Amino acid sequence: MSASQIIFYLISAFILGCGILAMTTRKIFRSAIWLLFSLVGVAALYFWMQVEFIAAVQIVVYVGGIVVLIIFSIFLTQQSGKEMPKPPLGRNIAAVLAVLFGFALTFLLINKYGFTDQGKAFDWSVNKIGTQMLNTGEQGFALPFEVVSILLLAAMVGCIVIAMRSKPEEK
Amino acid sequence: MSEIPVTHILFVSTALFFIGMYGLFTRRNMITMLMAIELILNSVNINFVVFNKYLYPEKLDGLFFTIFIITIAAAEAAVAIAIIINLYRSHHSIDVEDATEMKY
Hints:
The complex is a heterodimer. Chain A is mostly helical. Chain A folds into two domains: about 1-85, Four Helix Bundle (Hemerythrin (Met), subunit A); about 125-170, no CATH class. Chain A is about 75% helix and about 0% strand. Chain A starts with a helix and ends in an 8-residue tail after the last helix. In chain B, about 45% of the residues are buried. Chain B is about 75% helix and about 0% strand. By secondary structure, chain B is mainly α. Chains A and B meet through helix 1, helix 2, helix 3, helix 4 and helix 5 of A and helix 1, helix 2 and helix 3 of B.
């Protein structure tokens, strides 16, 4: 077993362990911190696959943006030390069964199909990504790029409008 | 690099997806449900990158999908948290069982 394989299995165990803890711990703040570790593990998996650009985007947006936003909203909306109520036993058993059967089905499907490695080197570079992202011709992603930028603007304005406290009559 | 079969990476992302589904089924707190959705989106991202890297190494479409999914996830989390804060102001609770005015 080579070092690369050992590192892969360590990263996978880290991601899945932190994910399970994030979904089962009963304190909401700890749940957010375990989610943060799990996302860092996913970034490590991208580093292992040598797609460093996606790993950097993952760390900047998820770890630096979304988790911080979630932690802020936890502090704004509830006591972080309070334990959440346990889910009812029936719902828990049903959820575990559904998840196990779904996992088994997908596992069997993937195993049966058996994707094979093409064996070629993956040649990406930030230069290529940038050129293709803003290219309007064949294989270009200029239109989705503009649509996503409009979506981000709409989401920003929408967030401000939704979360704004409305009391104009107090003046 | 190539000693790991592609299927093993896919098993990891499948397991992450179903961990997120478990959280979505059992949790009733809106913020933790949002966290479960983030885990699910991450497993999808891993799949896109793996398929691009190992099955179509001459193209870049999977990387673009991953970048767009990460962007849209950020927008979705921001809107969801704005809605949660607004709901907390009116109901003093972010449990989904407490917000049932629009049911029926």
